[in-house]
Every structure is written in structure tokens, then in C-alpha cells.
């Protein structure tokens, strides 16, 4: 019996251990290969050279497109490409559309996500959807991009409403109650402050002569529209929505530098802050503001107030003009402070809460955008990018990659014209009687359709239609609302 033979038992044990060893080596080699592959390492089967790969994820809208990588066709979008690390130029092409193109360096084991490209038609089909009696002086669009509201040119209290998502639906009209806006024989105008997230109310500033007032317009029930000045018996310098609610407000009085919260239903007002020079609110409790330094009236401190928590961003800034904004991206808070006189926009990330405004410590600056006389700071729809602008000069901060881009457009943009974000990755602006669009870093610039420079570009929910106020193509003396299809055969 072999199991009683000591020599055979030893030989069996050696074979068993050898088998265990070989299995262990196989597992180790397999694990090593898997780890190396997870870091992108591979073997070039032509040369036998060890290389390191990266991944490229692609997608395009409004339709799929053909991928060209360094000039070679490589399938269609909604595809993952595994390629060696190196320099690449990726082009997306589809018949009837402008080519989308980007050059980049792909690092080994890294991922390049090009899932945001939009291809625009070379010749968008444009129709005239509505003819106005005269050029409207005020047009705005709801945050969900469903409603376009245009003031009728012959009466400041009358408005037309268009459904951007369904152009077959006939336009409706509404008229504000007579006491909503102060009657005046002086020149009058409306300017948008902001929309409520209910997409039914918007806050506007009504200017008549040298005076002005603020109104909340309800586009679904115009009879409930509110004149804030009359309702609260105040003459504020600025009014903004608190947490984007139509009945919750922040009202600011410039002469006294006092910021109050107000409720149009209860008509109650509560003092929130003193010595305020400028402010920007976020939600119901967070406020970014510039306040006069209590120790030196010629200086200003930039502060974030979140409930009872105080964070001082910058101290003793020379009195001047400020551009303020804040947003959350990828679980981090980013705060933008544009100091016009400094020719800079300071960016703070997750600034620490300090014990009091009297502390000598201020927050650490995360990044800086340089800009001569910036006119605005604005986060993109996905809050990843922060843009500052002066005419046709732009500077953009990328929060995901902590990168900065500076560029200027080849076409002129008046200093008073502010570009806006079309979506999370594209900038759009009406200039030179055209709607112009380009990527966050200035590339892939396209002109889409005729448009009046003073009006903002407007889109439907899915960005398949562009709306614009423009002179009629058939009767240039008339002004129309045009609709341009951004998807062929829509």
C-alpha cells in the first residue's frame, strides 16, 4: 500500500507542494497581468513592445456621428476606445453637420471623456414662428426652457407666451393688472432679475424715467402678480429671490447698506446683514457678500455667511466693484470673487469657517482668473466651469481638472453684452446679428442663425431648436420670433 511507503509519501508530498507552488505562481502572474491591464499596460503585438493604454469615451448629440482618430475612421460615437498613450486629434463627423474637433494628450491609464459634443447643422432650417407688431424690448425664457415670454411692444403690461418644446401649440397672451406697474408718461423698460425654479414666476425691474420698482410676474395667473415696492412699502435698491421662491425675497437698501429677508405673503421683513456693499445668495441661508470693514471705511471684506457660520475670504480689499457667485460641484463648494479694480477673479474651494469676522485669518485662494475690467462671473449649468468675460475676452476655470483657459473670439462683442452658458460645456452669445456658440475653451465656434444682439439666445428643453428675435427674412422692416432646427429632419 503506497500510503504506508515513506518514500512514496515523500514523493507525493513533493508533487503536492510543487502543484501548490505552480498554482500560486499562476495566480500571482494572473493577478499581476490584471493589475497591469487595469493601469493600461499592454503589449504591441506588432513590435512586442510593452505600452500603456488609455481610454476615450465618446458620445454626440443630437445624433450619433463617425469617429476619426488622428485622421483614421474608428467607428461611431457611444463607443469606448482603448488606445496607447499619446497625442490625438479626435473629429466627429456626420453628413449635414459641422465637424466637431478636439486635440488632446492621453496619458497612460487615464480616461478622456468626450461625451458632451454637440454637432450643429451647417445650414439650420429656420422658420418665422411669430410676427410682432414692432420689435419687443423685453424677452425672457424660463429655467426649464419651456416658456418664452415676450413683452408686446405697444403695451408694457401685455405679454405673449410661447411653448418652446412644442411649436405647434398656439401662443397665449396675458395682461398684468393695472396697479402692478406704476403708470408713467416717461420712457419705460423691463429688465430680468431672475426666474423662480417653479418656472411660472419671474422677478423683473421696471424702470420709468429715473425711478424703478420690482415686480413678480406670474405667467400662469397674471392677476396674482405682485409689485414688491407697493406690497412691502419699500424702495429697495435691489431685490432677489431667496432660494428661488417667488414669495421669499432678499431686499437690499443701498443708502443704509442693510440687507433684509422679506415675505410677500406675510409682508414681514427681517434684517439679515448690515454694511453690505454687494451680495449673492444661494439657497435659503447661504450668502456671499462684500461688507465695509468695521475698522476702515475705505476697505471692504468679502465674506460667506451660511446660517450662523462665517467665513472671511478676503480682507481689506479697496472699495470698488465686485462680481460674486458660488456653486457646488462634485461635493466641493467653489466661491468666485471678482474684484474689478484688481483685474482678477479669485476662486476659493471649500473655504474654512472662521470663529468671527474680527479674526486676522482669511481663506486660502484656490485659483485666480485674470481679466481686465471683468463684467460678469458665471458658473455653467453643471457648475463645472466658471466664466468671466469682458467683451470678446474670456477666462474660464475648470473645477474638475483645476485648469484655466483664456481666449478671445474672432468677432467683436460689445462690452455691455453678456454671454451665457448654453449648457454645461458651451458658451452662447448674440453678436453681429448672429447667435454664436463655442466650447468652454473657445474652440468649435459656430454661427447658428440671425438674431438681434440685445436679446438672449433661447433653446428648447433638448437643445434641438434655437429661438431668436430677428428681422424678418421676407419683410426686413418687421421683427419676428424665429425657430431654427438644430437636428436635421426634426
Count of helical stretches: 2
| Average pLDDT figure | 90
Q: Give the C-alpha Rg.
A: 30 Å
Biggest β-sheet, characterized? 4 strands, mixed
Summarize the amount of helix as a percent range.
Answer: under 10%
Shape: globular
> How many DSSP-defined strands?
40
CATH topology of the domain at 47-114: Immunoglobulin-like
Strand fraction band?
over 45%
Low-confidence stretches: 32-41
Task: Label the structural class.
Answer: mainly beta
CATH class of the domain at 47-114: Mainly Beta
Distance between the termini: 85 Å
CATH structural architecture of the domain at 47-114 = Sandwich
Describe the structure.
With 490 residues, the chain is mainly beta. The chain has a domain at 47-114: Sandwich (Immunoglobulin-like), CATH 2.60.40. It contains two helices and 40 strands. The protein is globular. It starts with 5 loop residues before the first helix and ends in a 5-residue tail after the last strand. The model is unreliable at 32-41 (pLDDT under 50).
In brief:
With 490 residues, this protein is mainly beta.
Short descriptors:
490 residues; 49% strand; four-stranded mixed β-sheet; Immunoglobulin-like; globular; four-stranded antiparallel β-sheet; single chain; mainly beta
Amino acid at each position: 500500500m503506497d500510503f504506508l511507503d515513506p518514500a512514496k509519501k515523500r514523493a507525493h508530498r513533493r508533487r503536492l507542494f510543487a502543484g501548490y507552488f505552480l498554482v500560486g505562481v499562476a495566480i500571482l502572474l494572473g493577478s499581476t497581468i490584471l493589475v497591469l491591464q487595469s493601469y493600461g499596460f499592454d503589449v504591441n503585438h506588432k513590435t512586442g513592445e510593452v505600452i500603456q493604454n488609455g481610454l476615450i469615451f465618446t458620445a454626440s448629440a443630437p445624433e450619433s456621428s463617425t469617429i476619426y482618430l488622428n485622421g483614421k475612421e474608428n467607428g461611431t460615437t457611444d463607443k469606448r476606445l482603448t488606445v496607447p498613450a499619446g497625442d490625438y486629434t479626435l473629429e466627429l463627423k456626420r453628413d449635414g453637420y459641422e465637424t466637431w474637433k478636439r486635440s488632446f494628450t492621453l496619458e497612460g491609464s487615464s480616461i478622456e471623456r468626450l461625451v458632451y459634443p454637440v454637432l450643429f447643422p451647417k445650414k439650420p432650417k429656420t422658420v418665422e414662428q411669430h410676427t410682432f407688431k414692432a420689435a419687443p424690448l423685453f424677452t425672457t425664457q424660463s429655467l426649464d426652457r419651456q416658456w418664452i415670454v415676450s413683452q408686446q411692444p405697444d403695451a408694457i403690461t401685455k405679454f405673449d407666451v410661447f411653448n418652446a418644446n412644442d411649436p405647434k401649440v398656439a401662443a397665449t397672451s396675458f395682461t398684468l393688472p393695472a396697479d402692478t406697474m406704476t403708470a408713467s408718461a416717461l420712457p419705460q423698460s423691463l429688465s430680468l432679475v431672475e426666474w423662480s425654479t417653479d418656472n411660472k414666476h419671474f422677478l423683473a425691474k421696471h424702470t420709468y424715467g429715473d425711478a424703478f420698482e420690482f415686480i413678480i410676474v406670474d405667467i400662469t395667473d397674471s392677476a396674482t402678480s405682485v409689485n414688491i415696492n407697493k406690497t412691502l412699502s419699500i424702495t429697495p435698491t435691489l431685490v432677489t429671490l431667496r432660494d428661488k421662491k417667488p414669495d421669499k425675497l432678499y431686499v437690499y437698501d443701498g443708502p443704509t447698506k442693510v440687507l433684509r429677508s422679506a415675505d410677500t405673503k406675510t409682508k414681514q421683513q427681517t434684517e439679515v446683514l448690515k454694511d453690505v456693499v454687494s451680495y449673492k445668495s444661494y439657497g435659503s441661508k447661504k450668502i456671499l457678500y462684500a461688507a465695509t470693514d468695521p475698522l476702515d471705511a475705505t476697505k471692504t471684506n468679502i465674506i460667506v455667511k451660511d446660517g450662523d457660520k462665517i467665513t472671511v475670504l478676503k480682507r481689506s480689499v479697496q472699495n470698488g466693484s465686485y462680481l460674486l457667485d458660488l456653486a457646488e460641484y462634485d461635493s466641493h463648494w467653489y466661491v468666485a470673487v471678482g474684484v474689478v479694480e484688481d483685474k482678477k477673479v479669485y476662486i476659493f474651494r471649500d473655504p474654512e469657517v472662521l470663529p468671527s469676522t474680527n479674526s486676522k485669518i482669511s481663506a486660502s485662494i484656490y485659483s485666480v482668473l485674470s481679466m481686465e475690467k471683468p463684467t460678469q462671473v458665471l458658473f455653467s449649468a453643471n457648475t463645472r466651469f466658471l466664466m468671466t468675460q469682458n467683451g470678446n475676452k474670456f477666462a474660464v476655470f475648470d473645477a474638475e481638472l483645476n485648469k484655466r483657459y483664456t481666449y478671445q473670439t474672432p468677432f467683436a462683442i460689445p462690452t455691455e453684452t453678456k454671454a451665457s452658458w448654453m449648457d454645461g460645456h458651451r458658451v452662447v452669445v448674440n453678436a453681429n446679428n448672429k447667435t454664436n456658440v463655442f466650447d468652454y475653451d473657445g474652440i468649435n465656434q459656430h454661427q447658428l442663425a440671425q438674431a438681434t444682439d440685445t436679446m438672449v439666445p433661447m433653446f428648447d428643453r433638448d437643445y434641438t431648436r434655437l429661438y431668436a428675435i430677428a428681422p424678418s427674412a421676407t419683410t426686413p422692416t418687421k421683427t419676428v420670433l424665429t425657430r431654427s432646427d438644430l437636428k436635421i429632419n426634426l
